[in-house]
Structures are given as C-alpha cells and as structure tokens.
Amino acid sequence: DHPDRVSLDKLLFLSERAFKQGGETEEAFTFEFSRVAKALGGLSITDGLDRAKDLAKPFYERALASTRAKLNSGAVNSDMLSRARATLGIEDVEAKEMHIEAFAREVRVQLGLPEEEDDDDYMDDYNENQDKRVETVAEVKQKLEAMKEAEEKKEIEDTSDIKFKDGAFDTLSQLQDVLGLTDEDADYEIAAATTDYWRNTALSTLEDAIAKTKTPAKAWEIIQTRQNEL
C-alpha cells in the first residue's frame, strides 16, 4: 500500500480507539468519528471503520501466532488475548473466526504439514479452463466421463508418513482452552485436516485386501492403527 494510505489508516485506527476507549456514547462516537473520516479522506463512517479494522487484524494475528509459539512456556493465557482484543477493538465474532483459523494452522503444524494448504494446483487448473466453453450437452457428458475415467485411474497417494507428533493432542487441547474454542469447533478442524489422509490409507488397504495381498484381519489392523495416528 502507498505510504500515505498507510498513514491515513493508522490515524483512523487511533481515532477509533481513542473515541471508543474514551467512554463516548454511541451517538457521540458516530458523530466524532464521522468528522474524522470525512476530514482525513472524505470517507463515510463505514469505510473509515472498515479501514481501521483492516489495520487492527494483522496485529491480533501476530498476537495469535505468538500465543502458539509460546504455548508450552506457560507465558500465555486467554486473559492476555482478551486484553489484546480490547486494545485493538477486535469484535467477538471476528475473534472467533481468527481463533479457529489459528487452531487449524496449529493442527497442520502438529501433522508436520505447512501452515497453509497449497491451492496452486487447483488454481492452475481453474485458470487454464477459464477460456474454454462447453457448447453442447454431448460435450458436457464427454467431459464428465473423461474426468471420471481419469479419477478411476489415479493412484491413491501414499500419505502414511503424515501423522500427529508426540504430544500433539496435549498441545492442541491447551491451545483450544486458551482460544476458548468448543470441542465441536476443535474436532471439526482436526477432522478437516486428517480425513483425507485416513481415507487414503483405508482405500489402499482395502484394495490390498480385495487383491488378497493382505488378509482382512491385517487390513483392519492397519486401518485402526492409522485412525489412532490421526
């Protein structure tokens, strides 16, 4: 961003915080902040507040990253994050979304994966097909059949080396507590990160059992072991 815009956004953020923390009534806050937003950039109060929030979120994201890094040191707790939210003006709904995202990142780290999933391959395929036009029903059917055939021929990826580190569940449980997430939220993020890896093992093992290269008992043992790893 242009330095002038960055400076303007900082002024909007500081003004919003000063008025909010100064105990102004909602009516007084709206009046005062509207004046500031208009004077600084001819902005509406909505645009001014959005730009102030956009500046605050990266600070809270850094606080969450620091929380994860220092989790086992005992130096972080939910009260510290609560104070950070109050200082930065992060609302509860926004905070929950950011907490869930931070937890999902930690789940991937505990699995030995990069924090963010790589969507480049998907986007390459998407961009490559943007200019293609399917003109007839027959072409649609032909394309779907080709996709189905390619999917059937695709080999199941070996992801057996992806598993939770020792102590991962203790770390995730502690982080869940600090972030104030429900068991439902935590379980969903863990399942979202691990289901595909468990499915790969289950499918390849069942194929071996069908091909009689593994006994049904051995196949079941492998599937159960994999489930415990994830």
Compute the CA-based radius of gyration: 25 Å
Helix-residue proportion: over 70%
Structural class: mainly alpha
| Series of secondary-structure elements, N-terminal to C-terminal | HHHHHHHHHH
> How many distinct helices?
10
**How many angstroms separate the termini?**
42 Å
Main sheet record: none
Strand content: under 5%
Q: Report the principal-axis shape.
A: elongated
Query: What is the mean pLDDT?
Result: 82
Q: Flag low-confidence runs.
A: none
| Total DSSP E strands | 0
Can you describe this structure in just a few lines?
The protein is mostly helical. Helix content is 74%, strand content 0%.
List descriptors:
single chain, 230 residues, mainly alpha, 10 helices, 0% strand
Question: Topology of this structure?
Answer:
Blueprint lengths: L2 H19 L4 H16 L3 H25 L8 H11 L3 H19 L9 H9 L8 H17 L14 H12 L3 H28 L5 H14 L1
Tell me what the structure shows:
This protein is an all-alpha fold. Helices cover 74% and strands 0% of the residues. It contains ten helices and no strands. The protein has helices at residues 3-21, 26-41, 45-69, 78-88, 92-110, 120-128, 137-153, 168-179, 183-210, 216-229. Helix 3 runs parallel beside helix 5 (92-110), helix 5 packs antiparallel against helix 8 (168-179) and helix 9 packs antiparallel against helix 10.
